[in-house]
Structure formats: C-alpha cells, structure tokens
Design brief:
alpha+beta; Heat Shock Protein 90; 3 domains; 68% helix; 10% strand; elongated; HATPase_dom; Sensor_HK_TwoCompSys; EC 2.7.13.3
C-alpha cells in the first residue's frame, strides 16, 4: 500500500471508529427507544451498510424482512464494541489536537490553564512546546496510522458477523436475488430483442429494400434500353454502395450481440484491445484462466469495457489496471484506477448495467470507491459449468 493510500485508510478508519463511539453512546442513552422492533432494524441495517462500505463487501442486511431478534442482539454488542474500540481512537485523535495546540498556541493560555502533554507535562515555554509537542503529534499519528484501519475492520467484521444470515436465511435471500435477477434478465432480453429488431427494421432492412428497388430499376432500364450503359452503371453503383452500408450496419448490430473480437482473438486478445484503446495508460494482468464459458467471456468483456469507459469519462484518473484470475470455479476481475473515487450506481455511471449482466450469471460485484479514490471494482463469476 502506498503511503498516501495508507493515510487515506487511516482517516477512514478513524472516522469510522469515532462514528462507532458516537453511535454507541446513542445506543446506550436511547436503548429503550431502540428496542422498538422497527427502529432496531433500521439502526442495525445502517450499521451493516456502514461496515460493508468500510470492508468493501456487500452488507448483510440480516435485520430486515422481520429478523428483529438479530437487530436486538446487535444493540448491546454495539454498545460495548463501539465504546471499547471508539474511545481509544478518540483519545488518540484528541491528543494529536492537544499536541498541535500546545506546540503553537501555548502562550495564549494562563499559567495554570495551559495545555498538558505526555504524563501530564505542562507547557510553559517554547522549548517544551517545540520538543514534546511535535513528539506527541508524531508518535500518536504513527499509532493512528498503524492501528485505526485494523481496529475499524475488527469492529466492522463484528457488526457483519452479528447481523449475518443463517443458512436458511441465506438460501431464502439467494432465491429472492435469483428471482429478481431472472426478472431483470428477461426484461433486458426483451429490450435487447426489441432494439435488434428496430435496428434491423429501420436500418438494414430499409437499405436492403432500397437496394432491391435499385436493382429492379436497373433491370427494367436494361430491358427497355440495353444501350444506355451509363444509366444502368449508375444504378448498379448505387446498389453496390447501399450493399456495403447495409453490411456495415449489420456488423454493428451483430457486434452488440456478441463481440466478434472475442471469437477472433479470445478473451485475452479482446481485453488487450480494450485496454489499449482506453484513454489513459491501463495495465492488463491475466493469470491462467483455463477454459471459460462464452457467456462468462462476454460478461467480462462488457464489464471491463464499461468500467474503463467510466474511468476515462468520470474519474480523472491518470492510470488504471485490469487483473484477471481464477480460483477453482470462480473467475475474478478487478478493475482499478487512481482517480477521484465516489463511483455510485445511482449516478448513472454504468455500474448498474455491470451488476445486471453479472447477476444474470449468479456472479457478484463489489465497488470500493471512497471519496478521493482510489476505486476498485471486483467482479466474480462462476465458470465451472
């Protein structure tokens, strides 16, 4: 991890822990109110989503759909873990602020009201302020850098573990997801068929009709006046040009159904072409994938192409990467960039389309895109059919 990314993770971890401390205090103070089933579920769901964002994994909304018992169990667990893990973070961050104040503004306080540093050391002069003050800032900053991210992840994992599904609930949730994705696939399939029919009818078919008319006119003209070669040649030239235009349109229609480049070059060559055409430098790393079903190849191709298009248009990144690997019957694709982050399905950035394609094959999509970046989109697909 780069130094800058490490500080970003430390900042995110610190904000998460301070938020956990604050919400833990709220949980203790408002416990009777939060024991109301609906409020308990909303409170637990919010923490599940928050933990999922920190870990970069889909949250486990086990408290929803009537599963109130798990939400009520989460209340005392969060009250204990939020206070126990958040309070040290507050002390660390607070003493960093104290160090800054002591090093720069000690003179603004009275002799008995000034800030105090390590081991209750009072600051009454510049020597103490400029030695112990920066020392306290540096040591506590290093402590925050090293401890905030793992401690925050511990709390997030506890949250998700308490709110996790049972085997039966996981099966029910899986059935619900498959039902939704099946409906989405059927809708998308119907829309795609209508689009192809419209493209063929309005474009290719219209051109073919025009070609047929030109050829009929040419035949009639040749029958009426065989010596008028210029007229016949002009009609045949128009028909030939129309044929080429119809073939071009037909190729474009076919390309949207299944990219010919996949059939010509395979997944490796297709992704090489996509990353080469990307508007920013993009590195492609491909492990040993063995045989991959054609449907999975198409989804991977479209997902990478869409993600890199988003990177070029929206992220402000200067570099991107695509990494493919396979573990047993799961194919994983990770698309990264060093842009500004903040990728969100609801903003029309194409991630929703990627999710629909991936979910149709019973795959998963995880987006880790904090404000300020970097962004990582992880796609996993089953490929052991």
């Amino acid at each position: 991890m780069r130094w800058g990314q490490g500080w970003v993770q430390a900042w995110r971890g610190g904000v998460y822990l301070l938020g956990a401390l604050l919400s833990g205090v709220v949980t203790v103070l408002a416990l009777p109110l939060l024991c109301v089933p609906r409020l308990a579920r909303l409170w637990a769901d919010w923490h599940g989503e928050r933990a999922g964002r920190l870990l970069g994994t889909p949250p486990a909304p086990a408290a929803t759909r009537g599963r109130t018992a798990r939400a009520l169990l989460w209340l005392p667990v969060h009250a204990v873990t939020g206070l126990a893990l958040g309070l040290p973070a507050l002390l660390c961050a607070g003493n960093i602020v104290v160090g800054v104040i002591a090093a720069s503004l000690w003179w603004a306080f009275g002799p008995d009201d000034g800030p105090k540093l390590f081991m209750d050391i009072p600051v009454h002069g510049w020597v103490t302020a400029l030695t112990f003050g920066p020392l306290q800032i540096v040591l506590l900053s290093i402590l925050a850098y090293l401890s905030f991210p793992p401690v925050a992840r511990v709390h997030a994992r506890i949250c998700l573990a308490v709110l996790a599904h049972t085997a039966q609930e996981q099966l029910a949730e899986r059935v619900a997801v498959l039902t939704r994705t099946r409906a989405d696939v059927l809708d998308a399939h119907g829309a795609e068929l209508r689009r192809i029919e419209r493209d063929l009818h309005d474009g290719t078919q219209a051109r073919l009709v025009a070609i047929a008319l030109r050829l009929a006119v040419a035949r009639q003209a040749f029958a009426d006046n065989p010596r008028d070669e210029q007229l016949v040649a002009g009609l045949l030239r128009d028909a030939h040009e129309g044929t080429e235009e119809a073939m071009t349109e037909l190729r474009e229609v076919v390309r949207t159904v299944y990219p010919p480049i996949l059939a010509d070059r395979g997944l490796d060559g297709a992704l090489t072409a996509v990353t080469t055409r990307c508007g920013i430098p993009t590195r492609l790393d491909m492990g040993e994938l063995e045989r991959v079903p054609a449907a999975v190849e198409a989804v991977v191709y479209f997902a990478v192409a869409e993600a890199l298009t988003n990177v070029t248009k929206h992220s402000g990144a200067t570099a991107a990467g695509v990494r493919l690997g396979r573990s047993a019957d799961r194919l994983s694709v990770v698309i990264t960039d060093n842009g500004t982050g903040g990728a969100d399905d609801r903003r029309g950035t194409g991630i929703a389309g990627i999710r629909r394609r991936v979910h149709a094959l019973d795959g998963t999509v995880v987006v880790d895109s904090p404000a300020g970046g970097p962004t990582a989109i992880t796609v996993e697909l089953p490929c052991g059919w």
